[in-house]
Inverse folding.
């Protein structure tokens, strides 16, 4: 279990999604919410995605209602909001739990391999970000206050590690 490739999740429209299809790509995983102080980051995430998707970046958004009840809507409403308000085109998933006994296994894996605020493993708020390299391994965890644009250089450095053979498959 040294990569994210063995995980599966459900897209916001109910379709299954295998993380195996992410092999060779750089991935930014974000737990999101539609009505919090960081919701504007959807727009910044979409800009970063548009700028780097052809070089091998994928952003994955996981709506979560565990923090401040900032994601009380159903999946269809979340999808509509994200697409119409921020033109989100990166994959969005069905709502998940990121902490506790019902946490999605992906987030348990991410928390096991990194620490956040005050060296705590638990996710503390919406828009916590996890950067994954092209081998499916966790590079770093970023706090909700970390603006997506400030991650451009670290994303670029990870994209530079993608081999031409991997990039051809992307």
């Amino acid at each position: 279990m040294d990569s994210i490739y063995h995980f599966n999740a459900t897209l916001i429209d109910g379709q299954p999604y295998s993380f195996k299809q992410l092999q060779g790509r750089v991935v930014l995983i974000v737990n999101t919410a539609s009505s919090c102080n960081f919701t504007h980051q959807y727009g910044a995430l979409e800009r970063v995605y548009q700028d780097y998707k052809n070089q091998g970046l994928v952003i994955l958004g996981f709506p979560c209602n565990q923090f401040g009840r900032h994601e009380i809507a159903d999946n269809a409403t979340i999808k509509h909001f994200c697409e119409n308000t921020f033109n989100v085109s990166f994959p969005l998933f069905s709502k998940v739990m990121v902490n506790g006994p019902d946490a999605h296994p992906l987030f348990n894996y991410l928390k096991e391999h990194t620490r956040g605020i005050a060296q705590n493993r638990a996710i503390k708020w919406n828009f916590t970000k996890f950067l994954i390299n092209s081998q499916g391994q966790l590079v770093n965890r970023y706090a909700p206050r970390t603006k997506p644009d400030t991650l451009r250089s670290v994303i670029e450095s990870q994209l530079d590690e993608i081999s031409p053979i991997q990039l051809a498959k992307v």
